[in-house]
Design a protein that fits this description.
single chain, eight-stranded parallel barrel, 11 strands
Length: about 375
């Protein structure tokens, strides 16, 4: 269905383009007047300028993300200082703290990342039914805990004793289990460990905006250590509208709105909806958003980085985003061969679920 919808939309866009071109030519050659498309474009341009939130200054972005590995060439493999100085480079990010090695989004995973020398972690932020901010990725709790339930419909009291190591392949490594982490506890641990943070907002409710703003207010060091990210540009925009000093990014993958997963080898996963009309609407929306994101959404939101699915990253994509002043980060890169490919050929930051065999990357720039 997605391919058919895309073909229909492209046909409509081609017709609009041809009709607009004909109208412009008629206006100029026969009527000798400025075509309406000029005035319309001018109005849109002014509107974009008015609603845009400029990204933080490059010096602030570099303090949060470090120097861009894409521009430092072979130096990334020879310099040994990955501290908070001018040479810091966020080359490797522990995705959910490194969920293959330790329970994902857990305090023990973040501590393990620190001990492995990884100075940057990513975690997922959601809200419970009673608006307690916690770290969790899925909509339901079954995959990690073995229990049934939708997290957003459960209170913190119902969640706080659940063991998120229940289905972990290395469960025997954690005899005491592991609990769902509170957002405030995760921030405290990461800041105390001098780790840089990607706060990936999975929550759809707008209440999360104030949660993030309050966190920055209570922990001013986050302005130098953290980046706010989401698949939802409106969430990031509303956060930055109230606090434009926050460094931000957007995440994207093909078929995000219509399909539950995506792989470059296997293609799109199962549909998010069994309702054909909802699926059709999702297909239309994601085709439009795929065009809008690199056209003007990034500009309006004022992002400093883009988190892209690893299977759609290539040198051309990296160049296009760098021309817009946006860094590219790839997720999720787990195979050793892929890690070498992304670090040595593409020279970009990547997120990984495992820090095994990462010593040469997490300790050096």
């Amino acid at each position: 269905m997605h391919g058919t919808v895309e073909l229909i939309l492209n046909s409509a866009l081609l017709w609009i383009f041809l009709e607009a071109t004909w109208t412009v030519l008629v206006s100029i050659l026969y009527s000798f007047r400025i075509p309406w498309i000029f005035w319309g474009s001018l109005i849109i341009l002014i509107g974009l300028k008015l609603v845009r939130i400029p990204p933080p200054h490059a010096s602030i972005v570099n303090e949060v993300l470090g120097v861009n590995p894409f521009f430092i060439g072979k130096e990334i493999h020879t310099t040994e200082n990955q501290g908070d100085g001018e040479r810091y480079c966020m080359s490797v990010i522990a995705h959910r703290g490194g969920g293959y090695d330790y329970p994902e989004n857990s305090l023990s995973a973040f501590q393990n990342s620190k001990e492995k020398g990884c100075t940057a972690i990513e975690f997922d932020l959601v809200l419970t039914k009673d608006n307690v901010p916690v770290l969790y990725h899925d909509v339901t709790i079954e995959r990690l805990t073995g229990q049934k339930g939708i997290l957003s419909e459960m209170t913190w009291d119902q969640l706080k004793e659940l063991d998120i190591t229940f289905n972990h392949p290395l469960r025997n490594k954690f005899p005491k289990g592991e609990k769902i982490a509170l957002f405030k506890d995760a921030l405290e641990l990461c800041l105390n460990n001098d780790q840089h943070i990607i706060i990936d907002i999975k929550e759809k409710r707008l209440d999360v905006i104030q949660v993030v703003l309050d966190a920055y207010k209570e922990n001013p060091n986050l302005f130098k250590k953290a980046i706010v990210s989401s698949f939802n540009p409106m969430i990031v925009y509303l956060i930055r509208r109230k606090e434009p000093r926050i460094v931000s990014s957007l995440a994207w993958r093909p078929y995000y709105l219509s399909r539950e997963s995506y792989s470059g080898i296997n293609g799109p996963g199962p549909s998010r909806s069994t309702n054909p009309f909802k699926h059709l609407a999702a297909c239309i929306m994601e085709i439009l958003y795929e065009w809008a994101l690199p056209s003007f959404v990034y500009y309006i939101v004022g992002i400093s980085a883009i988190l892209l699915h690893k299977d759609i990253v290539n040198l051309r994509v990296i160049e296009q985003w760098h021309n817009r002043g946006i860094r590219v980060m790839a997720w999720t890169v787990n195979l050793p061969s892929e890690k070498l490919h992304f670090s040595r050929l593409f020279k970009i930051t990547y997120l990984t679920d495992t820090l095994l065999a990462e010593k040469h990357r997490v300790h050096n720039i």
